[in-house]
Each structure stands twice: as C-alpha cells, then as structure tokens.
Write a structure and sequence with these properties.
With about 140 residues, the chain is an alpha+beta fold. About 40% of the residues lie in helices and about 15% in strands. The chain contains four helices and three strands. It has a three-stranded antiparallel beta sheet. A hairpin with a 2-residue loop joins strand 2 and strand 3. It starts with 7 loop residues before the first helix and ends in a 9-residue tail after the last helix.
C-alpha cells in the first residue's frame, strides 16, 4: 500500500490517540464493526467530550481520533453535515477546508476497499447519538 495513504497526521493520530479510552461514566455508547476485516469501534458520549475505543487498522484509529476532535461540541445536525462532507471527501479525494485535519484521509479515495475503515467511527457515533435520544441536542451535552 502506498505511503500516500499513511500521511503523517494519520500515523500520528493512530499511534498517539488523544480521545481514546472508555470513560468511567458516559451518557451513551455506539458501536460499529466491519466483519470482513475485524475492525471494531465504540464511541462514547461523555459530557463535553467524545471518546472512542478503536480496534483495527491505522485508518480506523486515525479516523476515530479525528472524528472525535471534529465532532465534539457539535449539534446532531452539524455532525450530520460534517459526516456528509467527510464521505464526499473520501469518495472524491477533494479536500474540504472546513474539515480541517480530517482532510488527511482524502487519499482513501484511491483505495475504495478502505472506505469502510474510515467511515466506521461515524456509524458508531450515529448509533451513540440515537441511543442518547439526543435529536437536536449537542454532542457536548
């Protein structure tokens, strides 16, 4: 696999996570997995923060990290918009300025088989939001 896929931001975020770990107390947990490759991720709504436990590839771990950072404090509608823009980025490879460091995953467009690795955390976040019953509320509580 090309080094383009593993940009420094992706490697740094997967190796040195800032938002990883199950909080002792949390409002809701969402989960998602890819049975084809074994990737699994849980996302926790933890008051003002989003946290994750990502078990799988570098792309999954980096995507979960960057998602937690980008989505913390956003409303459900803002998260939906962010998710849509992120999926567009992954499909086209065209960077979107408002996505910030999520743009580090733009090269996924060259590797369609890795798309699910990058979107798995977003599925878990949607699951957590649904479980929290937080329609219209912010992810920051």
């Amino acid at each position: 696999m090309s080094d383009v896929l593993y940009q420094s931001v992706v490697l740094e975020r997967s190796r040195n996570p800032r938002h990883a770990g199950r909080p002792v107390v949390f409002m809701a947990e969402g989960q998602s997995e890819n049975r084809m490759c074994g990737d699994k991720v849980s996302v926790f709504l933890d008051g003002a923060l989003l946290r994750h436990e990502a078990l799988g590839c570098t792309i999954l771990a980096a995507s979960a990290e960057l998602m937690c950072e980008a989505a913390t404090g956003k409303t459900v509608d803002e998260i939906a918009t962010l998710s849509d823009k992120f999926e567009h980025l992954l499909k086209t490879g065209q960077e979107i300025p408002e996505l910030g460091e999520l743009n580090a995953l733009a090269s996924i467009a060259q590797y369609p088989s890795r798309l699910r690795c990058a979107t798995l955390p977003w599925s878990a976040l949607r699951d957590a939001l649904a479980r929290a019953g937080s329609a219209g509320d912010s992810a920051s509580g």
